[in-house]
Design brief:
By secondary structure, the chain is an alpha/beta fold. About 35% of the residues lie in helices and about 25% in strands. A hairpin with a 2-residue loop joins β1 and β2.
Length: about 250
């Protein structure tokens, strides 16, 4: 078995002929590692995550999960998405369902899991993120931070091997950001394998085992967070980081 849970070799992606969104991207993640991807808006970060979860087809290259190619057309995409969970900035909760029904739907319909076992895990996860008392509420009754925590629980309930988080605080008010980031920090401490796209630089520095800086669809720099944020090696990364004011994030 490969030492990497997730591995990408020479991935390229274009939306329009001659206009590359991702250019020859190679990338790998070990079990329990947290990789944070940063970079300017429009550089391909979110598209890259969508390719990893098979939400976008790729033009060239290969994606491997535990050493097995997963981007071939003969692969079962729904099974792959069970193993590579994803949380979006828009929550994507069903508005007509309670929180309890929202999070139990996929394990029931997709995984056909035992009802009691699934409900016990769901209860444990909701209590962990402080939302057990909201299980019978509807999404409209929750704050943005609460809805995003529900979306994280929903993804975790599928027991994914890798969790992809795409700008999960981008649509939140500033006071709601910390409650969501705290949940992710706790997941990192327990050894969850995660790939995170974020514009929250203090959070990136606190949670990452490794930081990847992307620009114009390519990986420009890759380093440990302490090294990257103190001593970026490329002029492009230096210019990017100079736009941020850093304050220590308490964890």
């Amino acid at each position: 078995m490969s030492e990497y849970v997730l591995q990408v070799e020479h991935l390229s992606k274009s939306f329009e002929k001659g206009k590359a969104v991702l250019q020859d991207v190679s990338f790998s993640v070990k079990k329990g590692e947290v990789v944070v991807i940063v970079g300017p808006s429009g550089c391909g970060k979110s598209t890259f995550l969508r390719c990893l979860n098979m939400l976008e087809p790729i033009d060239e290259g290969n994606i491997y999960l535990n050493g097995t190619v997963i981007n071939r057309k003969d692969k079962n995409v729904s099974k792959i998405r069970e193993k590579i969970g994803m949380v979006f900035q828009s929550y994507d909760l069903f508005p007509h369902m309670t929180i309890w029904k929202n999070i139990l739907l996929a394990p029931k319909l997709v995984q056909k899991r035992d009802k009691q076992e699934t409900q016990a895990q769901a209860e444990q996860l909701l209590k962990r993120v402080g939302l057990w008392e909201k299980k019978d509420a509807f999404p409209r009754q929750l704050s943005g931070g609460q809805k995003q925590r529900v979306a994280i629980v929903r993804a975790l309930l599928m027991n994914p091997e890798v969790l992809l988080l795409d700008e999960i605080t981008a649509s939140l008010d500033p006071e709601m950001v910390r409650e969501v980031l705290q949940v992710v920090l706790e997941l990192a401490k327990e050894g969850r394998t995660m790939v995170i796209v974020t514009h929250e630089m203090e959070f990136a520095r606190a949670v990452a085992d490794r930081v990847i800086f992307m620009d114009q669809g390519a990986i420009v720099e890759e380093e440990k967070p302490g090294e990257f944020f103190r001593y970026p090696k490329t002029e492009r990364a230096k210019k990017f980081l100079n736009t941020f004011h850093f304050e220590a994030l308490e964890i």
